[in-house]
Model the fold of this input.
Amino acid sequence: MNYPENFRYTKEHEWVSLEGDTATVGITYHAQSELGDIVYVDLPKVGATLEIGKSFGSVESVKAVSDIYAPIAGEVTEINDALSTAPEKLNEDPHGAAWLIKAKVASATDFNNLMTAADYQSYVGAES
Amino acid sequence: MTAAALQRTPLNEIHRASGAKMVDFGGWDMPVQYSGLIDEHNTVRTAVGVFDVSHMGEIEVRGPEAFRLVDHATTNAVAKLKDGQAQYSGLLYEHGGFVDDILVHKVSDSSYFLCVNASNQEKDFEHIRTLNTFDCEVEFAGPKYAQIAIQGPKALGVAQKLTDTELSGIKYYWFRDGVFGGVPARIARTGYTGEDGFEIYVAPEHAVSVWKAIMDAGKDVGIKPCGLGARNTLRLESKMALYGHEIGASISPLEADLAWIVKFDKGDFVGRDALLKQKEKGLSRKLAGFEMRGRGIGRDGYEVLMEGKAAGWVTSGSPAPTLGKNIGLCYLPVGKAGTGEKIEIVIRNQAVEAETVPTPFYKRPQ
Done:
């Protein structure tokens, strides 16, 4: 799997991209692959506050439920509503159309502290 | 436990080479899924799937008094079995809880072949050996067998290509010894999916060639290798018990809605007195099926509420791919375990509505 170079990654298998002060957050290809067929996605409301490392939602597959942790601090500005009716999109396009939330962030520091694509690639390589 | 310490079936290399997702399943390195759980599940319901279940254990009891030992150790009526017939049964402690749930195959009056759960096989063997005051021997036979399950409405057609044994002549829960895929095999018409199908026991050194032969024979009907994930959703839809979930050391067959495998009138067996007492006193809890009404999946271990109060716990819960619903099994107070009861399941600190329903959730079209 190719992990986009412009994303940053967490050990809990979330990804973040940053454009200006807007971050987009999703779960990685590896995460959806580990979960298998995804049947529910629970996301916060617009306006919710993200705290680094705190759960802001969950993704549930046929066989397990998994929390999603905020990789950055900020305020949720948009959620991907399409996932409530078509959660399987997370299996199909986790790095693209199946992003989870967008958030307004105060600084790029959190982003820069996360793993690069190369770091993440070797992290999941080592894990599996 | 590190990966190196996990036990492997003879088909481990095949699973890994095919890109299966592997997990630690009770100390065994097993495929949890291949193409995807739902896809595999649907393949078994509509066509045919193949499972490596070589991790399952086998125990052989042989000798002039083999019948007496097996009948003493298990809850079902072994005397009812004819040569070549199998039955589902319970292996109980004196206190009436399960050591394991097992399949008893009668090879002959002096030879019984028990198929037991992978993670219980050592315990089962010790348990049966301790009970053996009879003129027979008990063998821990797991290492002698690989087991491959071929399951689904097209299983018969696929399996028939690989053997001269007339498979349509083997009734459900019967078995025959023959040649399968060119090697000696025990061919049993049993399974853990709710579909028609066969469980094939072969020597471990033949597992790879038999697996490949099955995959080849099923190519034209879309056969797919399936993992333990699909095996679990298939068995749950059919309400087949899973040790450690619906049944266990502190649960009796009467509570688990398995009274049909307990034959009190056959005479003494281990656990009989405790079960009789339980029956006389009345049960306190019973297994019930439920469907989620609210949004969410009631999973294993989640608390069940009735009228806002703790009433029981979920033993298994999952989306049911065939039914398009979220289903599960749970223990409830015995008077409230009938169908149509409103319950709530505590899912991540939220009480979500569900309702008890008739089981099995799924029954294959005859």
About this structure: Chain B has a mean pLDDT of 97. Chain B touches chain A at residues 21, 32-33, 36-38, 229, 232-233, 295-297, 299, 318-319, 321, 348 (CB under 8 Å). The helical segments of chain B are 12-17, 37-46, 66-73, 121-131, 155-160, 207-217, 228-237, 272-281.
